[in-house]
Automatic annotation (TrEMBL):
Family assignment from sequence similarity: Belongs to the outer membrane porin (Opr) (TC 1.B.25) family.
Pfam families recorded: OprD
Superkingdom of the source species: Bacteria
Name recorded for this polypeptide: Porin D
Record GO cellular component, one term: membrane
Keywords: Hydrolase, Signal, Transport
Signal peptide interval: 1-23
Length: 428
């Protein structure tokens, strides 16, 4: 890992000595207001999880449950403002966000899908909201940002799969001084959950919250076909994690290509090990063949170590793996999983904006500590349509469905249905 990381950087430095841009991003700045943007994203989400085989949502305390399903409907709005940078050698700017959600349907007996937090009476909140801001400065093609922000590192990534996104608080430096090479480093001290309005409200298996997270990363575009990424994190009192990715696309002919995507993580507990024993190695390899409107994908993923792959305190999206899908991540202890997937883009058939996807993943050899290994399977269907023109341009409609089955000693069977309607509006 370390050898590969420094090899990528060395190659990038050698390649970049004659590839500096004529003008840096800061030199081309149009000013604080000249490059500003204001965007509003509205999202309506319905989510239903129907549990099977006697499982349920809220326990009655005697082995039975109040209901066998979870059902919520809500609407949210996310307003984001990004200024440009002031002109000069060092540019200064400001980013801000304001977000809120409202419950349209769902009660105490059906809560639990992660759309809303519960109040003291056990009822999901009727509305939630939070705000945040960050200051930023830029020198040449290097940017430093401090404050509340969204992060998309493989080892620290905020989640946006429900109504409101997670928000991290800290510092992130991103540098693109060398053409084709992006370097990043950051330190984060708080993480606000999707249903938690507090500055540091991550809960669940990690009730003690985030202590601090130090991250580094490098991505290098070797050529038009090959990209490599390495990253590492140090989550204080939890674990240290390393990540590697290689993505290669082989052009075959017009509208034909073959893509290979490899992802790998290594996690090792440290300090108080607040998440328990998380020592793990996990990797996935996906191969995708694209032919016009069609794409066929197969993938294999394998986990090993003293535990399954762990994430969450480092962000709900810190799982860049091929078989991390709608319900399961297929990341159990010693688990092996296989995926078959098919995508079709209907633009070539006269319906631009319409797409369909289906995939099936099976995992086995899961070590649950019993006499036999457990298995799990998941079947997904998805349809999406995006308006291409008119006053409602970019309005999208998305239907997601999942059927999940597993051994009773590993997980609960359930059927998952989600309807997501989203409208992004650029105001400035």
């Amino acid at each position: 890992m370390r050898v590969m990381k420094w090899s990528i950087i060395a190659l990038a430095v050698a390649a970049g000595t004659s590839q500096f841009a004529v003008a840096s991003s800061q030199e081309e700045s149009k000013g604080f207001f000249g490059d500003q943007s204001l965007k509003l994203k509205t999202r309506l989400q319905y989510m239903n999880r129907d549990f099977r085989n006697g499982a349920g949502n809220i326990s009655n305390g005697d082995g039975t449950f109040k209901s066998g399903y979870r059902e919520d409907t809500g609407i949210s709005q996310l307003l984001t403002y990004e200024s440009g940078f002031t002109q000069g050698t060092v540019g200064f700017g400001l980013d801000a966000m304001a977000m809120g959600s409202a419950r349209l349907d769902g009660g105490e007996g059906r809560t639990g899908n992660g759309l809303f937090a519960n109040n003291d009476d056990g009822e999901p909140e009727h509305s939630q909201g939070k705000t945040g801001a960050a200051v930023k400065l830029r020198l040449s093609d290097t940017t430093l940002k401090y404050g509340n922000q969204f992060v998309a590192s493989p080892v620290f990534a905020t989640d946006d799969s429900r109504l409101l996104p997670e928000v991290a608080t800290g510092t992130l430096i991103t540098s693109k001084e060398i053409e084709g090479l992006e370097l990043s480093a950051g330190r984060f001290t708080a993480l606000s959950a999707q249903t938690g309005m507090g500055r540091d409200s991550i809960n669940g298996r990690h009730t003690q919250g985030l202590t601090s997270a130090n991250i580094v990363g490098a991505t290098y575009q070797f050529n038009d076909s090959l990209v490599g990424t390495v990253a590492a994190s140090d989550i204080d009192e939890y674990f240290k994690k390393q990540y590697v990715n290689l993505n290669y696309t082989l052009p075959i002919a017009d509208a034909q290509s073959l893509n290979f995507d490899f992802n790998g993580y290594r996690t090792k507990g440290q300090g108080q090990e607040r998440a328990g024993n998380v020592d793990n190695k996990i990797w996935s390899l996906a191969a995708a063949y694209s032919l016009g409107a069609h794409k066929f994908t197969i993938a294999h993923q394998r986990s090993s170590g003293d535990a399954g792959y762990y994430y969450g305190v480092d962000g709900g999206s810190a799982v860049f793996l091929a078989n991390s899908i709608q319900i399961s991540d297929f990341n159990g202890k010693d688990e092996r999983s296989w995926q078959a997937r098919y995508d079709i883009n209907m633009a070539e058939f006269g319906v631009p904006g319409l797409s369909f996807m289906t995939r099936y993943v099976k995992g086995d050899n899961i070590d649950t500590g019993g006499d036999s290994d457990s298995q799990e399977t998941e079947l997904n269907y998805e349809a999406k349509y995006v308006m291409q023109e008119g006053p409602a341009k970019d309005l999208s409609f998305r239907l997601r469905s999942a059927v999940y089955r597993a051994n009773s000693d590993y997980n609960n069977d359930n059927n998952d249905v989600r309807v997501i309607i989203e409208y992004p509006l650029s105001i400035l």
